[in-house]
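Researcher: I'm preparing a figure for a lab meeting and need a structural model of a single chain. I don't have an experimental structure, so a prediction will have to do for now. The sequence is pasted below. Please return the structure as C-alpha cells so I can convert it later.
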Amino acid sequence: MAALDTTRTTTGSFGLVGRIGATFATVVSTVVEWNDARVTRNALNGLTDRELADIGLCRGDIDEVAEGRR
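Model: Understood. Here is the structure written out cell by cell.
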C-alpha cells in the first residue's frame, strides 16, 4: 500500500533554476518600473505650468509622482 504525504508546502523556489528565474523576474520588474517612471516624467515635463496647475501639480512634484511616492 502506498501513502502520499500532502502536508508538505513549497516555498516557491526549486533550487538553482528557481533562484535564477526569481532573479530574472526581479530584474524585469525593476526595468518595467524604471521605464514607467521615465514615461510619466517625460509626459509631465511636456506640460505647461498652467496644465500642471490644472491637475494640482507643480514642477517640483513631478519626480514624486513619477516614482509613485505621491
